[in-house]
Amino acid sequence: MVEKKAHDHAVDNWTSGILCYEFPYGSPPFEADEQDDTLRRIVTVDLTFPSAHYVSAEAKDLICKYVLLLGIGPVLSNSCLPVAQKARNFSYTLHY
């Protein structure tokens, strides 16, 4: 949507990851002061997990997996890099 390309159900999966992030942290994961910065963070998957809140490693892993399902850009975030590396040889299959 940000890149003005066609999208499918993967957007719903990505949105689930965003909501999973917002529940414990209380704010959107890619929010920035300027809209252009927010859009850049979305496209580059610039995801961070503030240390001020305790969130389990399993929850962070789940958030990363959902956000990476859309695959809209290269993963630059160190937070999701281990998940992305593991996922290279793993195929996600979602059943509806």
Quick overview:
The chain is mainly α. The chain is built from four helices and no strands.
What does this structure look like?
The longest helix is centred in the N-terminal third of the chain and has 16 residues, at 10-25. The chain is 48% helix and 0% strand. It has 96 residues and is an all-alpha fold. It has a single domain, classed as Transferase(Phosphotransferase), domain 1 (Orthogonal Bundle). Mean pLDDT is 76; it is low at 89-96. Keywords: ATP-binding, Kinase, Nucleotide-binding, Serine/threonine-protein kinase, Transferase.
DSSP helical segment count: 4
Q: In CATH, what is the homologous superfamily?
A: Transferase(Phosphotransferase) domain 1
* Regions with little confidence, pLDDT below 50 for 5+ residues: 89-96
> Which sheet architecture does the biggest sheet show?
none
Quaternary organization? single chain
Query: Beta fraction of the residues?
Result: under 5%
Structurally, the number of domains stands at 1
- What is the fold-level CATH name, i.e. the topology? Transferase(Phosphotransferase), domain 1
CATH architecture verdict:
Orthogonal Bundle
The total count of strands amounts to 0
Helix and strand run: HHHH
Radius of gyration: 13 Å
| CATH class wording | Mainly Alpha
Termini, distance in Å? 22 Å
| Inertia-based shape | globular
InterPro entries: Aur-like (IPR030616), Kinase-like_dom_sf (IPR011009)
GO molecular function: ATP binding; protein serine/threonine kinase activity
Keywords: ATP-binding, Kinase, Nucleotide-binding, Serine/threonine-protein kinase, Transferase
